[in-house]
Specification:
It contains 14 helices and 17 strands. It is of the alpha/beta class. It folds into three domains: 6-135 and 307-326, NAD(P)-binding Rossmann-like Domain (Rossmann fold, 3-Layer(aba) Sandwich), CATH 3.40.50.720; 140-301, 2-Layer Sandwich (Dihydrodipicolinate Reductase, domain 2), CATH 3.30.360; 344-429, ACT domain (Alpha-Beta Plaits), CATH 3.30.70. Bound molecules: L-homoserine.
């Protein structure tokens, strides 16, 4: 074993960074054996140097992250500060000064992954980011390496723990969105400003990364269709239960049937209780992968939290250190397929539409005609007259598979009917 240590610079020492430092210290001997050389924490860049950090030598702490990555003797920079800047500049500076990079930064990878990979290639360095998607769950490496000989057709996952906790609470208790969010906040699952999670920005970034790797093509954050889950109601869960379904916020990346394009989207959807993703409870994450040869695979585990995310970072650190010792680099970006990313209108799926309609002769026929005119075939219809005598009824229509554009056209036309008082909800039905 080499005795000269590999030097690691840690950018950020919050929930994840402090766990990375702790594991590097407590597992130092095992990590050295697995890598073939000791790894040494050579510097820790933080914003608040006065904060006490157990187990970290204060002499290593600096507020000058730029000077740290420019030192020239750093082998690996671990970036766990998040956000676009200064993370992007620090990472590219690290490559230029001879370091490889391990990052957990989903927003940056989703927005600028191609440029970062190009910078890593230019300098012959590694860029690894297992922790950027679904925390501890091994996913990037299985998609990038283990399944590199297969053809992936679909990746469908629950990649945000906060929203899964909220939806699971609504499902199991009948609570409304706000009540479930309040509980998630009180228990520390949701941040004070939960926008990134509940409006699905976080999940969209992860979908972009997964789609790019799965389909060997470039998918940027802007290519991902995104709908948050703040409009999901207790009534939607009751409808889902009637259909033998639950509701999950799903990230879905698909190859088109003709193989010539891909789509990536994040939105709430009904999913049958028999689907493996339906049983993912609480703040857990899971990703269901469908490929030509392997068939169906499911990856499941904790998608957030200090120690679980640090586990993924440490796995990358070991891989990158091994590469450094052997003078090799791991797989870089694979975007040779260069497939176009189709708009949401091209996505084909099933829909559950809940309408408030006038309860009088001919209304059902009128509604059915609108569906027919837009080429959307109805699978089931359920009508409940209201007992309050207001002359209205709830009409629930479940369609066969249709394009999102056809469904949007249908809903637009339905809204124009005098007899349709309102469109209470539209929910996609997946996983059948
Ligand atoms: N807020 C994210 C989640 C953290 O709830 O899954 C991990 O990206």
């Amino acid at each position: 074993m080499r005795t000269r240590p590999l030097k690691v610079a840690l950018l950020g020492c919050g929930v994840v960074g402090s766990e990375v430092a702790r594991i590097m210290t407590t597992h130092a001997d095992d990590l050295a054996q697995r890598i073939g050389a000791p790894v040494e924490l050579a510097g820790v860049a933080v914003r608040r140097p006065s904060k006490v950090r157990d187990g970290i030598d204060p002499a290593l702490v600096t507020t000058d992250a730029t000077a740290l990555v420019k030192r020239g003797d750093i082998d690996v920079v671990v970036e766990v500060i998040g956000g676009i800047e200064p993370a992007r500049t620090l990472i590219t500076t690290a490559f230029a000064h001879g370091a490889s990079v391990v990052s957990a930064n989903k927003a940056l990878l989703a927005q600028d992954g191609a440029a970062l990979h190009a910078a890593a290639d230019e300098h012959g360095k590694d860029l690894y980011y297992e922790a950027a998607v679904a925390g501890a769950i091994p996913l990037i490496r299985p998609l990038r390496e283990s399944l590199a000989g297969d053809k992936i057709n679909r990746v469908m996952g629950i990649v945000n723990g906060t929203t899964n906790f909220i939806l699971d609470k609504m499902d199991s208790t009948g609570a409304g969105y706000q009540e479930a969010l309040d509980e998630a906040t009180a228990l520390g699952y949701a941040e004070a400003d939960p926008t990134a999670d509940v409006e699905a920005f976080d999940a969209a970034a992860k979908a972009a990364i997964l789609a790019g790797i799965a389909f060997h093509t470039r998918v940027r954050l802007d290519d991902v269709y995104r709908e948050g889950m703040t409009e999901v109601t207790a009534a939607d869960f009751a409808s889902a239960k009637n259909m033998g379904c639950t509701i999950k916020l799903l990230a879905i990346c698909e190859r088109a049937a003709d193989g010539g394009s891909v789509t990536a989207r994040v939105h709430p959807a009904m999913i049958p209780l028999t689907h493996p993703l339906a049983s993912v409870r609480g703040a857990y994450n899971a990703v269901f992968v469908e490929s030509d040869a392997a068939g169906q695979l499911m990856f499941y585990g904790p998608g957030a939290g200090g120690a679980p995310t640090a586990s993924a970072v440490l796995g990358d650190l070991v891989a990158v250190c091994r590469n450094r010792l052997s003078g090799a680099t791991g797989p870089g970006e694979s975007a040779y397929a260069a497939l176009p990313v189709s708009p949401m209108g091209d996505v084909v799926t099933r829909y559950h539409i809940s309408l408030d309609v006038a309860d009088k002769p001919g209304v059902l026929a009128q509604v059915a005609t609108v569906f027919a005119e837009h080429g959307v075939s109805i699978d089931t219809v359920r009508q409940h007259g209201r007992q309050d005598g207001d002359g209205e009824a709830s009409l629930v229509v479940v369609t066969h598979r249709a394009s999102d554009a056809s469904l949007s056209g249908t809903v637009e036309a339905l809204r124009k009917l005098d007899t349709v008082r309102g469109v209470a909800s539209i929910m996609r039905v997946e996983g059948e």
